[in-house]
Amino acid sequence: MAVKKYNKTTLKKFRELLMGERNRIAEDLNYQKSELNKTITEGAGELSSATYHMADVGTDMAEREKTSLFAHRQAKYLSDVDEALDRVDEETYGVCIICGDLIEEGRLMAAPIAKYHVSCKETQNQRNNNQ
Ligand SMILES: [Zn+2]
Fold first, then answer.
1. How far apart are CA 27 and CA 8, in angstroms?
2. Distance between Cα 105 and ligand 1 center (Å)
3. Residue 39 · residue 64 · CB < 8 Å
4. What is the reported pTM?
5. What is the pLDDT of residue 15?
6. From ligand 1's centre to the CA of 47, what distance in Å?
């Protein structure tokens, strides 16, 4: 059986899509970083002035935690995008790592870092649960 893969034209299209994702995340991360710095500076000012500063600090901390969690997730996504770009180079992009069949273009457009069919993943999860 021949190894399935997307043709070069399609791979090129997905490379562009992934590069776009990459730029978008990099911008998001920069934005988050500057927001994070702002929160820290503003938080320090509030400490001395606000009456309910304890509550404020609590909210601030939660907010900051949320921001860093988001940044963490974005960083993870960025590395997934990089991996996907590697797969484009190796021409294995768009091939389900579970069944070896091609993942529909529609799914890849919606989730460019997808490595498997949703149905394959579900089957795998079910199998794991039954173990
Ligand atoms: Zn599959």
1. 28
2. 13
3. yes
4. 0.75
5. 98
6. 54
